[in-house]
């Protein structure tokens, strides 16, 4: 990529194929550092004060450790690691943000669990806050309904134990890099890949 040449096009409709190939080269180089950006996002969850017994960073590590100890597949271990990273930018729909981030790299099942885990997690506390603890029932027809219940019950809702032997982030880094290396690229170029409701 020629960094000395500044592109002169001002809109997509007047850019050329050569221009877009240069953009793709840039994006490939930028995307190679995605694991580092996700690791930094996970570290940013390490806030000093929290009303939980553990902060979100420790909770994420413990959820991933619980999945690993349960012999979950690597993709689910990483889903447990990143499931709350969307809290940084979008706390009220953080599951959708985490799911969107991981969609090009994980199965439809893992994407669906990440996207909907907030609703399933609400089973444990919605009734205390004036909500419906059974809100997850609206997804009862999904083929991944039971998987989401298992994910939340076994890895998420219980991952606040200060005494649980939790693995450090460095333990999960090679797994994260492997999962992110399996991506299928730009979603807009893959007409066969459907959105999963």
TrEMBL record:
Pfam families, sorted: HD (PF01966)
Q: Record's superkingdom?
A: Bacteria
From the Swiss-Prot or TrEMBL record, give the protein name: HD domain-containing protein
**Domain HD per the UniProt entry, residue ranges:** 56-123
